[in-house]
Design a protein that fits this description.
By secondary structure, the protein is an alpha+beta fold. The protein has 3 helices and 7 strands, in the order ββββαββααβ.
Length: 128
């Protein structure tokens, strides 16, 4: 069964089992997105368990998605995108330089994901 998801007015195709982007363009910079089945695999150095990881040097985003609701996956994607925006714009609240700022960024990503889903700006469905 074919599937689609929509971000704003941009529809992206995929299969029903993988309604997640494998590439994102953030402020004109292309990033590849990789999904991991193990929390330890999210960290490229395998030093700590993470739900998400981003690296502006390698232009990669890594997301844990095993048995996760799609809303949680998107919240994690948005969390990492906010880190990258902070790095590229020097907006201090979006930089991960303290536990408090990281928690605030996580809350912001959660609210933003909720806003996108509740207002149907991200739609997930299947084609017949």
């Amino acid at each position: 069964m074919a599937a689609w998801f929509c971000i704003g007015r941009h529809y992206i195709g995929g299969d029903i089992a993988n309604m997640k982007p494998d590439k994102l363009n953030i402020m004109g910079i292309p990033y590849s997105v990789t999904y991991c089945d193990n929390l330890l695999d999210v960290d490229p150095d395998k030093r700590e368990t993470l739900y998400g990881y981003c690296d502006h040097h390698t232009q990669t985003i890594r997301i844990y998605d095993k048995d996760c609701k799609i809303e949680f996956v998107w919240q994690t994607i948005l969390h990492e995108v906010l880190h990258l925006i902070g790095n590229n714009t020097k907006i201090s609240i979006l930089k991960n330089d303290s536990e408090q700022k990281h928690n605030e960024l996580d809350c912001l990503a959660n609210v933003f994901a909720d806003f996108l889903f509740r207002n149907n700006l991200i739609k997930i469905g299947s084609e017949n």
